[in-house]
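Researcher: Going back to the complex we discussed earlier. I've cleaned up the inputs and rechecked each line, so this should be the final set. Can you rerun the prediction on the complete assembly and write out the structure?
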Amino acid sequence: MKRTLPLFLAFFFGIIGIIVQMVPALKGLMDTMLDWMAIIAAFALAVGISSLTRHHMTKIRRKHKDIFFSYVTFIAMFFMTIIGLVGYFRPEGALQGLFENMYNYVRVPLDASMFALLAFYITSAAYRAFRARTWLATVLLLAGVIVMIGRVAFGPFIIFNDITAWIMKVPTTAAMRAVNVGIGLGIVATSIKIVLGIERSYLGGGE
Amino acid sequence: MKKITLILVLTLLSVPLLAAQETDNETPFYACDVSLYDTPNDDGISVELEFMPANSAEEVPQYAIDLYIDGTFSNTIMVKNAGALFLHTVPVEKKGSIVRAEIFAYDTQGQRQGPIVVKEATSSAQWYFSDRVGAFIWSMAFIGLIMVLIRKAKRGQEIFIRRIAGLEAIDDAVGRATEMGRPVYYIPGTSIIDDIATLASLNILRPVAQQVATYETPFSVPIKDPVVLTVAQDVVKEAYMAAGRADLHDDGIVYLASVGQFDYAAAVNGAMVREKPATVFLLGMFWAESLMLAETANTVGAIQIAGTDSTSQLPFFIAACDYTLIGEELYAASAYLSREPLLLGTLKAQDMIKGAVIVALIISIIGMLFGSDLLMKIFLQ
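Model: Rerun complete. Updated structure for the full complex:
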């Protein structure tokens, strides 16, 4: 039963999912199913919070060497939850403003800082990828250099702009489309395997 | 005399009729072209309105469209006369609703004239997408082919699958972590459960977890989505049981790191820097955090096996990781690792359909060269 019921549900809703993609009259049913997903996700959030709490509680209990980060997680989580909830029910108080300020002036800049680090990660990855050790890496290096110059071309270098446009439009698009055809078929095949119960690994596998 | 009197009477009577006819033949001063029709390919909850003014902006600065649904006034739409086509979708609550549009013109004095045109349409639901017939035929052919090849595979027919370096390296990667006594990290993407790439990644998680359990290697699966968390917990637990090492299983192996994109990247990067994993699997759907994770793994000296179907993130993985599963290889991984005939059958079907798509493309291109897009519409709509 533990295995049969999920397989039956996957088959039933999978078939409905295929049908609603073909029958416009059943679009309302699709919207209802998407609403159900939102409800399930809301319940799963509670499971997620429980997992996070358990994970860090275990670290604290075992006096893990990184115990400091677990304390930071707990303090941040409970602080934001409490001021968020109290602020929501008592909007005239100062806590709602504090919650918004913590979000806008602490969390958002931290997020932006992480995103900004991407530039350095790209540089170090590009350095490794562009080392001309093989002829394929050399082609990649040449294409990369041309595209970089083409993006900021001026004066006599404007020719690189046209070459860049060609590289992006012809070989890059061709390769992307080939990959996308494969991905599309892979998605369909995996979906069919799951709907028909052929693929069961996501349920833990086995019979 | 009687005849002359009769002719005179008939002539007099016909004057107003002729006059009326002349009036009918005259083009009315206020005019517009309006189409009101049921929205195609929907479930009967809207109708489409197309409005094109026929007067110049000097003659009629603006029009008003009064909408009635099932005889009840709904709303008025004011349309400035820009001489351009105006499109509007009128939503209705149920199929079979009768929508009436009455068009009024506003003259230069601001006086409302009309209604100059009245149109009616009934909303209705359609039972098939007229523009998805091609997709339906392809899907049915694909499903049929999968069935045939599964039956062949069940009968024991050998199916050749080319070598995928990234998947062949899984054994070595886990073995390396075991020898070094360092953990294996498995990141199943940062998307939600209804993303097929996430499901494909969870399918690979099982054999990896089983191997990790067999080698008694420390294992960590940080997750971003709570629904994925519950599924991944089950997959890992079952894998440890299948490996006969349920005693090694710990609820802390699979945990929710964070639900925010960069929070998650920061949490996982921090954990990697502190714990220095020997092997990192990055399989699933990723966005901007892909390179952050891959580069951090590289910095701590981990061997990285990555795979995604996001074409925008693939170049980052190829640049930063040791092995990359490109697009469809991610979906093939489950069959490749398990070697189950049923799963291998679908792989073969995938390749055959890909071949058919290439042939259809070539035929369609030849057709287009001869000026016919019929084949393109049939094959690739």
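Model: Worth noting: Chain A touches chain B through 63 residues (CB under 8 Å).
Researcher: Good, that matches what I expected from the previous run.
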